[in-house]
Amino acid sequence: MIVLIDDHEETRIVLRMVLEQAGYRVTTGRDGFEGLQLIRSRAPDLVITDLIMPVLDGHQFVQALEESGDRVVPVILVSVHAPSLAEVRGFTGKFDAVLPKPVEPATLIETVESLLDRDERR
Questions:
Q1: How many domains does the chain have?
Q2: Domain CATH for 31
Q3: Range of the domain at 112
Q4: 5-40: buried (b, 16+ CB within 10 Å) or exposed (e) per residue?
Q5: Residues of the chain below pLDDT 70
Q6: Strand extents, DSSP E, 30-108
Q7: What is the pLDDT of residue 122?
Q8: For the chain: N or C, fewer Cβ within 10 A?
Q9: Within a 13 Å sphere around the CA of 79, how many CA atoms are in the beta-carbon half?
Q10: pTM of the prediction?
């Protein structure tokens, strides 16, 4: 199961549709706080999060995961700021993958499959 966190409803709908068409189960949240609650109650295989969100942004969300010990799954950052973040290693190092918005469906699925496959080999 994948937890998808984004404050824009349209983005959640589109990405959820892409992921579900590829055969994944998806649950969504509107901000990092909701995302933390979903992770604790659902034990997902992977998380996809936006960066700029209310309550807890993507960076604060991942920090909270790490501090709580709940960071046991891959996390993909999908953001319009992805190209500039690629230059900031300390920041992007918190994520397993960083993809630009709008994300190409094939790229999203390829990244998800790659991270899930890598995780299964551990």
A1: 1
A2: 3.40.50.2300
A3: 2-120
A4: bbbeeebbeebbebbeeeebebbbbbbbbbbbebbe
A5: 70-71, 82-93, 118-122
A6: 46-49, 75-79, 97-100
A7: 34
A8: C
A9: 21
A10: 0.88
